[in-house]
Amino acid sequence: MALCMKSNAIFGKNRYNLCMDFRIGHLRHFIVLIEEGNFARAAERLCITQPTLSRSMQSLENKLEAQLLDRSGRTVTATPIGDALAGYAREILKQSEQAVNDIGLLAGRQIGHLRIGVGPYPASISVASAVARFVTSFPGISMNVDVADWNVM
């Protein structure tokens, strides 16, 4: 999904007509990168290669004509401009996910996300088969299963 925002902005005596055409995936990449603080971990979490993530961030910075990331330390952090974008990006991602869910419901599809927590013993004896049956019965619903002791959840 691409976003195109047009703005007539005035910087000093110059007027710029800016058209930023970037993909929601760029925003998702940006958010995951600042959450992870590391290109390798973010790329792994996104199931993409590190060079692909680097190109995605370069593209986003070029389109916005701003440095969004501070790469100088041991971890990658958002610049003040990046912090400002992060708030908007999270809202855009949230709204786009909500739109997809709403359209799916209107179209009669069962969609959504289910997250459950189970202890190690139930996970070892019965959860795998229950999850398999659920996923087969409801393919539009994604599922996360967290396995941990009760005092951790």
Task: Please give the structural blueprint.
Elements lengths: L1 E10 L2 E10 H13 L2 H8 L3 H15 L4 E2 L6 E2 L1 H27 L5 E7 L1 H18 L3 E7 L6
Parallel strand pairs: 5-6
Antiparallel strand pairs: 1-2, 3-4
Notes on the protein architecture:
There is one protein chain. This protein has helices at 24-36, 39-46, 50-64, 80-106, 120-137, and strands at 2-11, 14-23, 69-70, 77-78, 112-118, 141-147. The chain is α+β, with helices and mostly antiparallel strands. The strands form 3 sheets. It has a two-stranded antiparallel ribbon. A two-stranded antiparallel sheet has the order 3-4. Strands 5-6 form a two-stranded parallel ribbon. β5, α5 and β6 (141-147) form a beta-alpha-beta unit. α1 packs across α2, α1 (24-36) crosses α3 (50-64) and α1 packs across α4. The longest helix has 27 residues, at 80-106. The radius of gyration is 20 Å and the shape is globular. The protein starts with a strand and ends in a 6-residue tail after the last strand. The relative contact order is 0.10. Residues 1-18 have low confidence and may be disordered.
